[in-house]
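User: Hi! I'm a student and our assignment asks us to look at how structure tokens line up with a sequence. Could you show me two examples?

Assistant: Happy to help. In each example below, the sequence comes first and the structure tokens follow. Example one:
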Amino acid sequence: MHKPPSLARIRFFQNQVHHPNWKNSMAGKNEEPVIKILESIGYTIEKDFVRQFPIGEKFVMDFAFVNEQVSVEVDGESHKDSKQIRKDDRRDRYLHDNNWVSIRIKDEQLKTPYQLSFYKSLIRDVVEERREQWIKGHLFPVDVPYYIDEDYE
């Protein structure tokens, strides 16, 4: 059972997370390669996707395609901690329960051409599938595969 958010957290989500300065301060260096990926496949920030997008009064997504309800999360070193892994699992469940598709990318998986190519294709395929669904008026779940190094060696 989840406890409801505190009044301070509610105020934070109502007031702070929408300010560009806060969004920029929260964005990590590990997000820069993802921005390059998104731009390289034709997506424009603030038009197609947004950074540091709040959902509900619980979470802030690294990147969100809002109409398509696709979240792109970049997991750096801090996401290897067991407490953070549990938080990430809760976030993914919350997104899933609210009809969002979550694409998680470990920042160390953005180093090789194979990895970059995989994530370009994955993001484009998922976003375009959800965009077609959105245009038709109903979003359905989309399976998101994981990158496995051995598949590309």
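Example two works the same way, sequence first and then tokens:
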Amino acid sequence: MEDAATSWEARSAPPSDVKEANAITGKEKSKSGKPSYRAVTLERYWSRAELPQQETDALLLEHLDLQRRRLRAIGAPDFDIHLHLKSFWARFEEVLPPRGSFYLAWSENGALLGTAALRTVAPGIGEMKHLYLRPEARGLGLGQALVEARVAD
């Protein structure tokens, strides 16, 4: 955990409340020089229309590019990250309530830090579709907070 106190706030609100949660401010650096987010909002989305589409696409493409590079490094075949993203959006309803959960993590200053998605396979059984944090948000416990928020849904 970083030097500054960190708090995670998970919101699971109806669509009308989603935009309000994205208006957040402030960020500081810890003694180590790594960004320290004092408060992060974990926002659960209820429809694709609520999402900041360009920011979400950019974040998911970062995630897919990282996965592609890691897989290629161990000899896996290459794949088209844009085609993979298109496929994800085609089946996006599978990670929306009541069938799943889709979260974006926002810093105090409104920067998009990460994402997580869960799809319900059967009652009490879920499949983690993805979990991704931008490098500056890693090591702060945010990944665990995203997993816990999804499981709690």
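Here is something you could point out in your write-up. The longest strand covers residues 112-122.
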